């Protein structure tokens, strides 16, 4: 049997967890990673060097590599706050920025570093240009910049992207559309709905490819709601928002965690953006015309609630090996 082709789309800290587990399976793996981050080290570098922000790409490079833990720790090393212009920059971000400047492209830099770190699979930034994420709220107010969205008190209606430098509509990176069209299974998330997942799929070419692909599309629903984004959202609300942005009901299967996060477990000082556990609305999910796979997908560590990468990977592999094909 040929390896199932699995494409994972997202960003932030969510998708590295499942990519690290999926890379150990007998699959042809591709990651498509958001480039709309404008905060922290990534934001400072994209302004200084005019490159796509490297932070999410760095995390994916590490997750998909079999490099020793010590090497990963070097790439993740963050300069001390007393280090002047270098303060707060992870070393890996600086390396990606340097190679990107050498080769004139973040896309080329990631392909070079993928070979350098012996990655089996593909990593593509969703666009080769830095993008600005715009959030339009229900009251009509608009906020530009991913790092500012959670600061406005309101309910997000929709998001869209522009190229930061030109203001034009974003263009997908090379091979992104091709990988979506050739995939057997496409995984959305896990990750922040409005700032990690949607910044990929609202790129017009990616949205169009998701509408046309014959691949099974799986959404890994978040475990916790997120301040300024998905407050009071159920799992069905997450799926509804994705379908509204895409313009059609394309998700075939939703993975939902049914294990309870212990009361008062979350370290609210460390994870202050996360609020409460996402509630289930199985009737709402049925109305979205999706198949629901519910299981214990929870992993508690470091005072936070995360997806168990191995458990999620097992479900994705099982879905990928099912024989039904879209018509």
How do the strands and helices of this protein lay out in sequence?
Blueprint: E1 5-10, H1 14-22, E2 28-33, H2 40-49, H3 55-64, H4 69-76, H5 91-103, H6 106-116, E3 122-125, E4 131-137, E5 142-144, H7 146-149, E6 156-163, H8 176-182, E7 185-188, H9 193-201, H10 204-212, E8 216-220, E9 224-226, H11 235-246, E10 253-257, E11 274-277, H12 282-287, E12 291-295, E13 298-301, E14 304-307, H13 309-321
Parallel strand pairs: 1-2, 1-7, 2-3, 7-8, 8-10, 10-12
Antiparallel strand pairs: 4-5, 4-6, 9-11, 13-14
Helix pairs in contact: 1-3, 1-13, 2-5, 5-6, 8-10
What does this molecule look like?
The structure is a single chain. With about 325 residues, the chain is an alpha/beta fold. It has one domain: CofD-like domains (Rossmann fold). It has 13 helices and 14 strands. It has a 7-stranded parallel beta sheet, sandwiched between helices. Strand 1, helix 1 and strand 2 form a beta-alpha-beta unit. Helix 1 packs across helix 13 and helix 8 packs parallel to helix 10. The radius of gyration is 19 Å and the shape is globular. The model has no long low-confidence stretch (mean pLDDT about 95).
Structural class: alpha/beta
Please indicate the count of domains: 1
C-alpha-based Rg, rounded: 19 Å
- The fold-level CATH name is Rossmann fold
**What is the level 1 CATH name?**
Alpha Beta
Give me the CATH architecture, please.
3-Layer(aba) Sandwich
Cα separation of the termini: 22 Å
Instruction: Give the CATH superfamily.
Output: CofD-like domains
Summarize the biggest pleated sheet.
7 strands, parallel
Binned strand content: 15-25%
Q: Which bin fits the share of residues in helices?
A: 25-40%
Integer average pLDDT: 94
Largest sheet strand order:
3-2-1-7-8-10-12
* Structural shape: globular
- Order of SSEs: EHEHHHHHEEEHEHEHHEEHEEHEEEH
